Structures are given as C-alpha cells and as structure tokens.
C-alpha cells in the first residue's frame, strides 16, 4: 500500500519507542495524541489527493514530458451533454478519454456507443458513483468495478483496464479491490472544478494556467458550462500547438485487455 504502509510502520515504531520510555520516565499523553493526529491528517490527505499515490499507484500525468501532448478526460457520463462534447471533439478532430458510470451507460446506451464508434477511449468510473463510495467494503468496490466492466463488454466487446475512482478517493478497501481487478488507476494533475464553480471564465482560467506538457485534464461531460469551457480550451490548445491524445497513448498503457 505504498506510502500508507510506510507511514503506519513508522507510527507503530514511534509508539513502541514512546511506550518503552514509559518504563524509565514519564511520557506525557500529549505525545501519543499528537502522533495520532499526524497519522489521521496524513491518512485523510492521502485519501482525497489521488496524486499522492498514498494507498495505490495512480497515473496522474506524464512526468518530465517535453513533448506538447496532453490528455483530455471526462467523468460521470454518458449524459445528455455528452452529445455536445462529442460534436466539439469531432469538429476539432480530437480524441478524449471518457470515464463512464455504469448506471449512466444503462441510461444512455446510444451515446455510449457513439463514444466508442468515434474512436474515443472509455474507462471505468464505478457503477453507481455513490457519495459513500469511500466507505464501501473492498467487496462492494470490487462489485462496482466488475459490474461496469461486464456492462461495457456487453455493449462494446471491450474489457476496460483503466479505472478512475469516484471523487478521486482512495483507501485500503479500494486498493485491495484494484489489486484483484488489476486495473490501472488514472488520476489527473489539472482539475477544472467545473462541477464546483459556476463562472465559465473562472473554470477556463484555472485550466489554462495549469496547462503543461504531459498533463491530464479532468472535466465533466454533464453541463452546458463545461461544454462552453471545452470549446474555449480546444481553441487555446490549438493556438498553443498542443496535441490532445488519449490517456493510453500519453502514458503508454493498455486501455483494454485483449
């Protein structure tokens, strides 16, 4: 479990040292409380920042890239707005990566088929995208991933190997499920926050100011404001001579299992 395991081992070692000291001198309880708070803070931070690779390895960019390539990703579809996103991508001759929710695929099968038919990449974004996903057992996480994979295989014949956890949350349960499914966890290093901000200019400037080679942009194909920002972003990237590529090409990973 990468950094999480190291932190736990370190904290246990410190507790043992403090406990040993109690045989020789008084050790104030505040030291134990402080250690617990440090552990809790690091664990919470690691759970909500996928870029830290705290519980499981996540690909969030192509480090040290000098080629002006960038990946554009969309979460939470297929949605009625996905059609407008696809129209823009087609107009600019750009291929993107869509992390799809299983329930949304069931609700919008024709849009999902269009994503595939137009040459875009699809990845697993769980089945329910539950707000409680971070509290699911490893078995429930496993069910969410495998159900969506089976659904996509049924509709397209593709067996997805890319997974983006809802909200970018990771924890030991999610890590355990991923170790069984063998998916590649895909994060991001350019977060648009297009589901948080209402002002389109704020969203656009936030993304534009973070653009750099090897980056992975996170957007959502679920609102008109995101569509409007996307159009401006595509024009900007074209002006800056960026090539927009799918995640598998940027990271040199297999998106589907043969």
UniProtKB/TrEMBL annotation:
Naturally occurring in which organism (per UniProt): Flavobacterium piscinae
GO molecular function terms attached to this record: hydrolase activity, acting on carbon-nitrogen (but not peptide) bonds
Transmembrane segments: 7-24, 30-48
Record-level GO BP terms: carbohydrate metabolic process
Domain NodB homology: 68-245
Entry superkingdom: Bacteria
CDD domains linked to this entry: CE4_NodB_like_6s_7s (cd10917)
Organism taxonomic ancestry: Bacteria, Pseudomonadati, Bacteroidota, Flavobacteriia, Flavobacteriales
PANTHER family: GLYCOSYL TRANSFERASE-RELATED, POLYSACCHARIDE DEACETYLASE YHEN-RELATED
Keywords: Membrane, Transmembrane, Transmembrane helix
Name of the protein this chain belongs to: Polysaccharide deacetylase family protein
One Pfam family recorded for the sequence: Polysacc_deac_1
């Amino acid at each position: 479990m990468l950094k999480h395991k190291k932190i736990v081992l370190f904290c246990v070692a410190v507790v043992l040292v403090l406990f040993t000291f109690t045989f020789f001198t008084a050790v104030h309880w505040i030291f134990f409380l402080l250690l617990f708070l440090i552990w809790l803070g690091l664990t919470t931070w690691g759970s909500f920042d996928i870029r830290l690779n705290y519980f499981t390895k996540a690909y969030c960019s192509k480090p040290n890239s000098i080629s002006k390539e960038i990946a554009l990703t969309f979460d939470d579809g297929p949605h009625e707005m996905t059609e407008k996103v696809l129209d823009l991508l087609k107009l600019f001759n750009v291929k993107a990566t869509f992390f799809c929710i299983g329930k949304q695929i069931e609700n919008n099968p024709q849009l999902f088929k269009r994503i595939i038919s137009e040459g875009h990449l699809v990845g697993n974004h769980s089945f329910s995208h539950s707000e409680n996903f971070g509290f699911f057992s490893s078995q429930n996480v496993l069910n969410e991933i495998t159900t969506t994979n089976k659904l996509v295989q049924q509709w397209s014949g593709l067996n997805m190997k890319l997974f983006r956890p809802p909200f970018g949350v990771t924890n030991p349960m999610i890590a355990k499920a991923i170790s069984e499914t063998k998916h590649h966890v895909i994060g991001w290093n350019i977060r648009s926050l297009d589901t948080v901000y209402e002002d389109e200019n704020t969203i656009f400037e936030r993304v534009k100011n973070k653009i750099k080679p090897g980056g992975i942009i996170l957007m959502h194909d679920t609102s008109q404001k995101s569509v409007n920002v996307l159009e401006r972003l595509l024009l900007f990237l074209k002006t800056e001579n960026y090539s927009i590529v799918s995640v598998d090409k940027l990271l040199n990973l297999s998106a589907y299992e043969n």
